Amino acid sequence: MKIKSRIKVLLQSTLAAVGLVATMAHAQTVVLYSSNNTETIETALDVVKKTAPSLKVQQVTGGTGSLMKRIQAESKNPRGDVLWSGGFGTLGAYKDLLQPYKAPGIEAIPAEFRGPDDLWIGTNVHVMVMMVNERQLKGLAAPKTWSDLMKPEWKGKFAITDPSKSATAYMLVYGLLKQFGKDGLEKIAANAVVTSSSGTTYKGVAAGEYPVGLTIEYAAQEYVAGGQKEIKLVYPSEGSYLAPEGMFLVKGAKNMDAAKTLYNALMSKEVQEAELVKNFRRPTRTDIQVSKLTSLPDLKSIKIFPLNQDTASAEYEQLVALWNIAVSKAR
Amino acid sequence: MKIKWWPWGFLTLVCLVLLGFFVLYPLGVLFSNSVLNDEGGFSLQAFASLLDDADYVKAFWNTLILGFSVTLCTVLVGVPFAYMVARYEFPLKNLVAVLPVLTIVIPEIIVGQSWLLVLGNNGILTNLFADHGIELPSFYGWTGMIFSMTLVYYTYIYLGVLAALRGFDGSLEEAGLSLGTSPLVTKWRVLVPVMLPAVLVNALVVFTLVVGNFALSMLLGSRVPLLSVMTYNTFVSEMGGSPALQSAMSVVSIGIVAIVLFVQKRVVERKIYTMTQGRAPAPERVRSWKSALFTGSVGVIILASLLPLIVVFIAAFTATSGPVMRWGSWSLDSLTRAIRHAPEPILNSLQYSSIATVVGVAFAVLVSYLTIKKRNAATQLLDYIVVLPLTISGTVLGIALVQTFNSGWLVLAGTSGIMVLAYAVRRLPFAVRNATSTLFNIPESIEEASISLGVSPLMTFFKVVLPAMKASLISAAILMWVTTISELSASVVVYSGGLETMPIAIFRQVDGGRLGLASAYGAALVTVILVPIFVSIKVFRINLFSSK
């Protein structure tokens, strides 16, 4: 009987441990799915601790595409409450998973940075740039335009993220298609090294794996501000593309009230300013002036090739298919 | 012998049910998902689309090539190393004693991360050479993978060959010499048959580990398609959709390893020579240039093996500006952030590994006792099933568990239960092997004496058998602890909100370019691994690796 009772105690202890964790998880808890890196999340949550001290935020981190598929997989039994930072194009492809919510103080964010029917709200806006590692150029002149990368000498010399793996990469590829057409996109695809996550692209440029990466402003700026002298940002003179990132409440979220509290906090001026200063995340709010707080230019100083976020969202499937064909053709 | 139903027959059944539900059932789900189409009918479409996928076929062959390349390199490093240590006396030789401990217990993700810090395109050594006009080849891809995997896995060859050489009877060599054969020919004809089985057995182990490797492939593979990375990426892409493709990929991975294990069982183990009453020749002391050569060789290998440990601790105390390491500037920020601000990965790792270790060791003791001391058809079946996880890489195991326990009457996905389960199942074969090796040495007469004096079989087990197994139990527990706490490839698949562990945190931080914070978690992980090993060797005087 002893071994039987020991096994029983063992199982009970195991189940108790699991139950204990589950119990703690429900007390004022909100589960945040985030594609942001640790510092970005920490910066926001440090502010949230002051503005909403009762919240206990649990995190799941990963790429945006991965997290969206996870939310989709869990839709019958949602485990996440808030998703923070997905590109509008990606969010638009999963509208059924989003819970509409009109947050107080929403007027500070311009209409172009809000989702339809209050499905999501922009928390920051990325500007597409070319991140250059001068040490790896080896005689090649740094590119000034997207078109430069279509030239034969750039084959295998720059990285771009697969648009089905990253919201920002999707907007980048979409912008290239709109500005240069199918032929232009195919030339880019023929020369590019395609990576499987946005982190791989900018980390690869910083590590010297690629001379140039088509990536987002904050990611490149981190290395510049961090003191890596060979890293430079190039805003293409033909016009950059914007990729606002939004957050939403998960439909059917188990901790909806706590989720709304977190949602309100993440869009606040305090959080957006802190993210700009510490992590170079360009705010969507109009009451924050970028050039006064960082060395980055104000949005109005950058030439922007305008993109319609709704149309981008609607054309998601076609663009990914077109990109895959272009990549296959180049192989 | 026929055994009574109570207690051993009943416990055998309990073990079979548990293994059936947590090992066989998930594998069954995985296999069935690979041959079912979206309408639930039978289909081989998933396998057909794999053959049509040029990237997948390339990944398949790349994985085999990588397996052979690394295995060959580990033999080229491990065999000469073992021979030097077994047959010669030279300075630094005593340092070799710590080598197997360090190389086996350093998590692969730390090895990969450290070598990137040193030899990556922006690495310390790379930049140092570049400043002097020397361009090192890119570490990403084949170079980095073969290099780092060789350093991780050569220890298996080294330990196996060392054991074989130390069991070798020197009188055979003397007999050859006295019959007039030249020393070189004697060595070749006598030593090779003894060393070859050890080399082959451990080479096959290395091959399976390389094929299933995830952390180093993910960090260093760059543009080289590989099965383990592709399977993981397919799993991520297929979340919410049909699991057919990831299942088919997983089945192929299982197939490769199963074939290798079959070859090992049927071919290699038949050739094993066992020597009894062997007397190994005394080590020969070497002089002058030979001494320098041997010391130098050993020194290089030791330094290369230890470097990841050194680098990860230096990096943990190095100041950072965002993703940029400020070498030469010291700071406690990374460690403070890891330990105080975001301690959850550390706490989770300690919790899951503790539970998995207790569960795993208890189960392993029971299973090994049943299979060794109560042998019959049922316990024989138990013996086969318990080693099944060896055919499954971590990624594949994670996929099988998620597919099985995401719905139905027992939902573990999203709970710490699935993390503990992944750990325990994955590492159970090691614990069983450890427990089994000691049981062989416990005479049945002691047990029978206890029973004939009126003590019940269960009481005999607790009072006689368990105390005799004490050293082995501690050894198995520590091995279970070390291997579970550094586990990544299964847990990164099954984890969700609030369940992040240290290896997952390291993986995420490296992936996000945060090498300072990754190193802080890495230092914490290595500390948690080394402390119990140190305690067990110094306090309990247990030779952890004698039974490996």
TrEMBL record, chain A:
Gene3D superfamilies: Periplasmic binding protein-like II. The keyword Signal applies. Residues 1-27 form the signal peptide. Keywords: Iron, Metal-binding, Signal. Pfam families: SBP_bac_6 (PF13343). Fe cation binds at Y218. The keyword Signal applies. CDD domains: PBP2_BitB (cd13546). InterPro entries: Ferric-bd. This is Extracellular solute-binding protein. It comes from Diaphorobacter ruginosibacter. One of its GO terms (molecular function) is metal ion binding.
UniProtKB/TrEMBL annotation, chain B:
Gene3D superfamilies: MetI-like. InterPro entries: MetI-like, MetI-like_sf. It is a multi-pass membrane protein. The chain crosses the membrane at residues 7-27, 59-83, 95-119, 139-165, 199-224, 244-263, 292-317, 352-372, 384-402, 408-425, 473-495, 515-540. One of its GO terms (cellular component) is plasma membrane. One of its GO terms (biological process) is transmembrane transport. CDD domains: TM_PBP2 (cd06261). It comes from the Bacteria. Belongs to the binding-protein-dependent transport system permease family. This is Iron ABC transporter permease. It comes from Diaphorobacter ruginosibacter. The lineage of its organism: Bacteria, Pseudomonadati, Pseudomonadota, Betaproteobacteria, Burkholderiales.
